[in-house]
Design goal:
Number of helices of chain B: 21
CATH architecture of chain A: Orthogonal Bundle
CATH architecture of the largest domain in chain B: 3-Layer(aba) Sandwich
Helix content of chain B: 25-40%
CATH class of chain A: Mainly Alpha
CATH topology of the largest domain in chain B: Rossmann fold
CATH superfamily of the largest domain in chain B: P-loop containing nucleotide triphosphate hydrolases
Oligomer: heterotrimer
Structural class of chain B: alpha/beta
Shape of chain B: globular
Strand content of chain A: under 5%
Largest sheet of chain B: 6 strands, mixed
Number of strands of chain B: 22
Number of domains of chain A: 1
Distance between the termini of chain A: 27 Å
CATH class of the largest domain in chain B: Alpha Beta
Radius of gyration of chain A: 22 Å
Number of helices of chain A: 14
Number of domains of chain B: 3
Order of helices and strands of chain A: HHHHHHHHHHHHHH
CATH superfamily of chain A: MetI-like
Largest sheet of chain A: none
Chain lengths: ~300, ~575, ~325
């Protein structure tokens, strides 16, 4: 099993692509850093008592900073390394959850729409049309706006992560639904699906056991690309001041805070989280591109 | 005129260079139709691409000489080679549906091609195009030339393709499977046209095909390829009638004849020896005997009959106008047919005649708008009322055309074979299901270790055996085979046909054998039904149909089917 | 063909009705409109009278009908925050956003299509690899970061271009344009580039993928085998066929342009609809949010109708019926 995996085409191509390998290393490092942030970070950036204003605005080590703070501190005296690790943790959590919700919802609807066709398909696709007329950022902003109107402020604060996740997920499901549906249309006329239908297998079994494994390639690509979109979307919403607040900063919030220092000399407060975010998203997108090439060799 | 010596083509790959063409030599004279024949993977198309200089990268010509007249084709610069294309060598592709630019009119494509090679005015180029289309058999060419490709039917489109290849007066035309996508009637017209052009315009044709019937019908000389190597070359009549090479001999033996029925086919071995094909393994093998015992244990000795009466299928067309109703397409029009228990009924017809729709009605994929179905003495419920647990779901099994798509590529062979056992509740124990799957693989002539592999690790013929094995594990009484060998090479086709014959004899299955290939139908069936545009034209015993067809349409079909030279 | 257009028109109307319904539901169910419009000192009687006047006691469907009817007559209600007619507020902001979006889209097409074609024709070249890497980084940088970087470089470090506002504008009828002054163009450059970069990378990658697909098609191979000059092969045969799917997606992307204009307008304090929308979200100004949605959906539907017409113009299969 393992031997075959190592000899398989994707793995072979992976080890021939320096870009994909580099991206995978960066992604794994960031993922590991985010997962183990509580153990790696010297301070807890959410705990105001763990840092002091006395350490505020210290530059990175190589610019003559304090040895305790490798990448310097912000105006509150927060260690930048700790801030970006915890920020990435929050960004990735929201991104992954949103991607998971969007893929389950989108793939489910897309599978069913493609399989059953007819009226159900028409309804799902019209909803997708409406969703397309209201692009991702707009949908996310709108859901956030509605939740502000509907929920009392205190609860809204508590549910921020959930609302943000849902908002991002709802703006991304269409991608999954359209891709899944298009693939199902191709697959369902193939003989192996027809054979299962002739046998009288349950539609759920046909969809999940027969069709789904055969359309995983394109879905995997969308998952990767949409994880990148979800992280960007979260950062954008936080940047617009609508996502997460300053006391639990995600990468986007950190960048928004850093914007205040654009004109003063403390460049690291802005550029450290910015570069970290860009490196993370670039590496995910490189991997997505690699997967796309693997699953669609004609473009190679 | 065209001379190829020791042509070698290689494709660099992950595991070193792959030699696609290995030292092949051939020549085509002016006015000659030279056939290039071989099974898939023989390298036929690669030779064509190498001649015209359009090898798919990263393939390259590694060795050999290619000359057209005095021109050395290998020493041309890329610009010279491109200028030579169209001017002196042209090409015809297989599928007329995709060979023409859909966004340009026929006139624009013809005029552009002429002006690419000759300094003539647009008006003159247009006049020449119209004259050429008329010569090629397109009526009212002056008006039709303004049309777009989608406004022509398949056969007409292939004529337009030929006109495009011809409009610059090339010396050599490479025709890559020019009639494979066409029905026999259209095929024979296109072949006639090619023959006429070779004669009147003195053009050399290199005709690439897998169809030995086509080779026999129009080529002067033939070259037989296998695995990139030249097997035999010479005058067509001589090569086909008295082949010298062992492979050519075995290939000829595997071609089903139209004029007689063979009991068994001889099949070329992997080491090019002629041998009796393994259809079913001899019951001497223990597990095969087990499988056979299991298969016959629960079934009757003779399969049940199959009947349909007054079946009509109507598909609603796409709506194209607000005011008129969408045109309904009638796929089957009042079709009545019965298959005798334990017999093989051949169902023939051209594409679009409704053959496959009959299979879909019987298997419950398509709902007929009228008519009645029966299985044995019982009613066979149509699609909408056929429950998921209906007994007919097990009794009627289907073998599909394309073995590459009929097996789920993500499932192991063992799981694919165990599925009917589990689904129909034939075998509750997972271990026994696995044993049976292994045993049936043995029965259809595959080794039992195939069970842990995936479909892509098998060849087309092996996959078709697995597909047949899967349908057998349902303990069926009726087998519906929809073009089961059309996607296979002749030698593989012979093996699968032998297998089906053996199964039918051993288990008394009732078989509905659907095919467009009359020669194959002759080998397989007891009775024949001919279908045209959703209506039954003729039905009767196979002997009567092939020796004394009643309907005009049947006679036409038989006369147009290219046969082996007698 | 007429049927094709009509079908699309019906679908568009359907989308508009659905979005209008969304906007209405927002207005009706998110918070209580009456308590939003009245203060603490308003008596219960006055509130009840206002409720009756607004028709909030009528049946739901009647209210929706009235809402839609009012919209069709240009009555979009009043803002909770500024108490002004929403129609005026939006109308004043439309020119800024449309000018920004159009220039950004033009940048993305004028740069994206040629580079897409180039990278498809030379898939293995060094320049292609460099462009592909750049665009990959391009799609990975959030729009607002691009904006910040541009501001930092051209505004702060070099001081060449203004970093906020529209600069000099000219009033043409009811349209406030910044396209007719040098100053206006200077102010437009950074926001338009910011907004255009993301779309540009998408357009380029799409054109490249479609073009490579077309170049492998049988009719291109056949045309190559006929010795059609490469220039015509690439630009007459291949590019035209590439554009058929590409224009569809570009139509869909227009929605993205408008959406990302929210971010761009926020970074550059560009006084367009997006900035207004952001403000209205902060203040839960439901009527403005709802109308913004409807306006955006309208532009989206309009652009896609134009795309459908272009589609018909390019593809003869939609214009003339075949007989085979």
């Amino acid at each position: 099993m393992l031997a075959r995996l190592i000899k398989s085409e994707p793995v072979y191509l992976f080890f021939r692509s320096p870009a994909a390998m580099l991206a995978a290393i960066v992604a794994i490092l960031v993922l590991g850093g985010a997962a183990f942030a509580p153990f790696l970070a010297s301070t807890d950036p959410y705990d105001l008592s763990s840092f002091s204003l006395m350490d505020g605005l210290l530059p990175p080590l190589w610019e003559g900073g304090d040895p305790r703070f490798l990448l310097g501190t912000d105006d509150q005296g927060r260690d930048m390394v700790s801030a970006i690790l915890f920020g990435a943790r929050l960004s990735l959590t929201i991104g992954l959850m949103a991607m998971a919700v969007a893929s389950v919802l989108g793939v489910g609807l897309g599978l069913a729409a493609g399989y059953f066709g007819g009226r159900f398909d028409a309804i799902v696709m019209r909803i997708a049309d409406i969703q397309l007329a209201l692009p991702a950022i707009l949908t996310a902003l709108l859901i956030d706006g509605i939740s502000r109107g509907v929920l009392p402020p205190a609860i809204h604060q508590d549910l921020r992560v959930a609302v943000l996740t849902l908002a991002i997920a709802l703006s991304l499901w269409v991608n999954f639904a359209r891709t899944a549906r298009a693939s199902v249309f191709v697959e369902r006329n193939k003989d192996y699906v027809q054979a299962a239908m002739i046998m009288g297998q349950h539609p759920l079994r046909v969809m999940l056991r027969h069709i789904l494994p055969n359309i995983m390639g394109p879905l995997l690509v969308i998952m990767t690309v949409d994880l990148a979109s979800a992280i960007l979307l979260e950062a954008t919403l936080s940047f617009l001041g609508i996502g997460l607040p300053a006391d639990s900063p995600s990468l986007g919030t950190l960048i928004r805070i850093g914007m205040q220092f654009l004109l003063s000399g403390e460049w690291w407060i802005l550029w450290v989280p910015t570069l970290f975010l860009v490196a993370l998203v670039v590496s995910i997108n490189v991997l997505g591109d690699f997967l796309r090439d693997v699953f669609n060799p004609r473009l190679r | 005129m065209l001379k190829i010596e020791n042509l070698t083509v290689k494709f660099p790959g992950r595991f070193g260079d792959f030699t696609a063409i290995d030292a092949v030599s051939l020549s085509v004279a002016a006015g000659e139709i030279h056939g290039l024949v071989g099974e898939s993977g023989a390298g036929k198309s690669t030779i064509g691409a190498a001649i015209i200089g359009l090898l798919q990268p990263p393939g390259f010509v590694a060795d050999g000489k290619m000359t057209l007249g005095e021109t050395d084709l290998r020493s041309l610069s890329p610009e010279e080679a491109h200028h030579l294309r169209g001017k002196r060598i042209s090409m015809i592709f297989q599928d007329p549906q995709t060979s023409l630019n859909p966004l340009m009119t026929i006139a624009d494509q013809l005029i552009e091609t002429i002006q690419a090679h000759e300094d003539v005015s647009t008006a003159e180029a247009r006049d020449r195009s119209v004259a050429l289309l008329e010569e090629i058999g397109i009526e009212n060419a002056a008006a039709r030339i303004k049309a777009y490709p989608h406004q022509f039917s398949g056969g007409m489109r292939q004529r337009v393709v030929i006109a495009l290849a011809l409009c610059t007066n090339p010396e050599l035309i490479i025709a890559d499977e020019p009639t494979t996508a066409l029905d026999v009637a259209v095929q024979s017209q296109v072949l006639d046209l090619i023959r006429r052009l070779a004669k009147t315009r003195d053009i050399g044709f290199l005709l690439i095909t897998h169809d030995i019937g086509v080779i026999g019908q129009i080529t002067d000389n033939v070259t037989v390829l296998r695995g990139g190597r030249l097997m035999e070359t010479g005058p067509t009549q001589k090569v086909l009638r008295t082949p010298e090479h062992a492979y050519t001999k075995s290939l000829m033996a595997a071609v089903p004849p139209l004029d007689r029925k063979l009991e068994r086919f001889l099949v070329p071995d992997s080491d090019i020896k002629v041998s009796d094909a393994p259809g079913l393994a001899a019951p001497a093998s223990r597990s095969a005997a087990d499988a056979e015992q299991w298969l016959t244990a629960g079934t009757r000795s003779v399969g049940e009959g199959l009947g349909m009466s007054g079946v009509t299928v109507r598909f609603s067309g796409n709506r194209t106008s607000l005011f008129s109703r969408p045109d309904a397409f009638i796929a089957l029009d009042d079709v009545s047919m019965s298959v005798r228990p334990g017999s093989v009924m051949g169902l023939v017809g051209e594409s679009g005649s409704g053959k496959s729709t009959i299979a879909k009605v019987l298997t419950g994929l398509v709902q007929p708008s009228a008519g009645h179905l029966s299985l044995g003495d019982a009613d066979l419920p149509p699609a909408r009322t056929r429950g998921r647990k209906d007994p007919s779901r097990r009794l009627i099994q289907m073998v599909f055309q394309d073995p590459y798509s009929s097996l789920n590529g993500r499932h192991r062979i063992g799981d694919i074979l165990a599925e009917p056992l589990w689904h129909y509740g034939l075998e509750a124990d997972a271990g026994k299901r696995r044993d049976l799957a292994a045993a049936i693989l043995d029965l259809v002539g595959l080794s039992a270790d195939a069970i842990d592999r995936f479909p892509h690790q098998f060849s087309g013929g092996q996959r078709q055996r697995i597909a047949v094995a899967r349908s057998l594990l349902a303990r069926p009484s009726v087998l519906i085979c929809d073009e089961p060998t059309s996607a296979l090479d002749v030698s593989i086709q012979a093996q699968v046909l032998n297998l089906l014959k053996d199964l039918q004899a051993r288990f008394g299955l009732t078989i509905l054998f659907i095919s467009h290939n009359l020669a194959v139908v002759r080998q397989m069936s007891d009775d024949v039904t001919v279908l045209k545009s959703g209506k039954i034209v003729e039905t009767g015993t196979s002997e009567d149909f092939f020796t004394n067809p009643q309907a005009d349409y049947s006679r036409e079909l038989l006369s147009l089917t290219p046969g082996m030279p007698v | 063909m007429a049927f094709f257009i009509l079908k699309r028109l019906i679908q568009s109307v359907f989308v508009m009705i659905a979005v209008a319904f969304l906007a209405f539901s927002l207005f009706r169910f998110v918070g209580d409109p009456v308590s939003q419009m009245t203060g603490v000192e308003t008596s219960a009687e006055d509130s009840a009278r206002l409720r009756e006047e607004l028709g909030l006691n009528d049946a739901f469907i009647v209210q929706f009908g009235r809402f839609t009817n009012n919209m069709l007559h240009g009555d979009f209600g009043y803002s909770y925050r500024t108490r002004q007619p929403v129609a005026d507020m939006i109308a004043a902001r439309i020119p800024a956003t449309l000018e920004l979006g159009t220039v950004a889209l033009l940048i993305s097409l004028l740069v994206g299509i040629p580079t897409g074609v180039y990278t498809a024709l030379r898939p293995r070249g060094f320049v292609t690899q460099a462009i592909l890497l750049t665009t990959l980084v391009g799609v990975s940088i959030p729009t607002f970061v691009i904006g910040i970087m541009l501001i930092f470089l051209f505004g702060v470090q070099l001081g060449w271009l203004p970093t906020f506002g529209r600069g000099g504008t000219v009033q043409i009828g009811g349209w406030t344009s910044s396209l007719f002054t040098f100053d206006g163009w200077r102010a437009l450059i950074l926001p338009a580039v910011t907004l255009g970069v993301y779309q540009l990378t998408l357009t380029m990658r799409l054109v490249r993928a479609e073009m490579m697909e077309v170049l492998r098609s049988d009719y291109i191979r056949f045309a190559t085998a006929r010795g059609i000059p490469y220039r015509s092969l690439y630009f007459r045969h291949a590019l035209a066929n590439t554009m058929v799917p590409v224009i569809t997606i570009i139509g869909l992307q227009f929605g993205g342009v408008i959406a990302f204009s929210i971010v761009t307008e926020s970074v550059f304090q560009w006084p367009g609809m997006g900035l207004l929308f952001l403000e209205s979200i902060r203040f839960v100004d439901i009527p403005v949010m709802g109308v913004y949605l409807v306006v955006i959906a309208f532009f989206f539907v309009l652009v896609n109708m134009i795309v459908d017409l272009l589609y018909v113009a390019i593809d003869p299969r939609l214009r003339v019926r075949g007989d085979g």
